[in-house]
Design brief:
Layout lengths: L26 H23 L4 E10 L9 E8 L5 H15 L13 E6 L11 H6 L13 H7 L3 E7 L3 E3 L12 E4 L1
Antiparallel strand pairs: 1-2, 1-4, 2-3, 5-6
């Protein structure tokens, strides 16, 4: 379909749920975020999660904008297997704490639980040289070009990706990779 290419897909090693974005400018701010994450674990995460990983199901796809013919982000929907709202509560409370600390700006009333599968920001400019990625740490692209997601949405609206055990919250560094292929991590619980 128009605008669809393999470069739009998220690297499987980097699949994740984004709770929010932080701008941490120095080691002190990174340490403050790590300390706050540990306090959240003690204050509410362990209690809500019962000290165990949360089993979530990933099923169905949705898109972020208004027109499926002009899609920029396609994501997999995520929900707790047991039907509870524990993951949503943990996500919302984490964001609330980080906003209150001044480390995060408040964007929404609740966290939108999703796993990005396709994103036009990942689109590579075929005329750019691959080595540019290693210099800037970002993918090279000219301008965001939407894709027609209507057929994908029809074919995969109820697609069952599977279930996964969520067992950590990480402070991941954008445009980075560790030895496993996942984002380099500044801290985690």
């Amino acid at each position: 379909d128009h605008g669809v290419s393999s470069s739009l897909f998220q690297n499987p090693a980097k699949l994740h749920l984004t709770l929010g974005t932080l701008v941490l400018l120095n080691e002190q701010e990174i340490q403050k975020a790590c300390d706050l994450l540990q306090r959240c674990k003690e204050d509410f995460v362990d209690q809500i999660a019962g000290g165990k990983p949360l089993t979530v199901e990933v099923a169905g796809v949705e898109y972020m904008n208004d027109d499926p013919a002009m899609t920029d982000v396609l994501y997999a929907k995520v929900h707790m297997k047991d039907g509870s709202d524990r993951l949503q509560v943990i996500a919302d409370q984490l964001v609330e704490r980080f906003v209150a600390s001044g480390l995060m700006l408040k964007e929404w009333d609740r966290v939108k639980l999703h796993a990005t599968v396709m994103n036009t920001l990942f689109r590579k400019d075929p005329s750019a040289e691959e080595q540019n990625n290693t210099v800037t740490g970002k993918s090279s692209f000219k301008e965001r070009e939407s894709f027609n997601g209507r057929n994908i949405l029809k074919l995969f609206e109820n697609f069952y990706f599977g279930e996964v055990q969520l067992d950590s919250v990480r402070l991941s560094q954008r445009f980075s990779s560790d030895a496993s292929g996942y984002y380099a991590t500044s801290g985690q619980l």
